[in-house]
TrEMBL record:
It is a multi-pass membrane protein. The gene is sdhD. It comes from Devosia oryzisoli. The keyword Lipoprotein does not apply. The lineage of its organism: Bacteria, Pseudomonadati, Pseudomonadota, Alphaproteobacteria, Hyphomicrobiales. This is Succinate dehydrogenase hydrophobic membrane anchor subunit. Its cofactor is heme.
Amino acid sequence: MRETVISQATIANPKSHYGNAPASTRHFITQRVTGGFNVLFLGLLLYVVVALAGQDRSDMVALLGNAFVGLPLAALICIAAVHMRNGMRDVFEDYFAGRMYSLAMMLNTLFCLIVALAAAGALVKLVFWG
């Protein structure tokens, strides 16, 4: 597969079109929405950090095992993982191209998925099974 080379003249011309417009719009909206949810959940995260300061393991399990704290925190972890994946995509687009970009994005997606599943799974386990 041959890569398309985009010249500086093409980029400078306001009438030229390159890239995938729907995918870029979806990426932009996803990044803004997940960022907004992260800001909204910041209060919950601060509450958890302050409430657990100086507490022992049993207090931590009791607080995170509460469905009103644990489930929103699990949702926050999943939303933050999506936000992290999109942010790293921006970095990879700047520094990688072709097959190396595809490999980097695959590894990035896998890493974010593993982090989200492990952390959210641990919280869901605490909520439902103690």
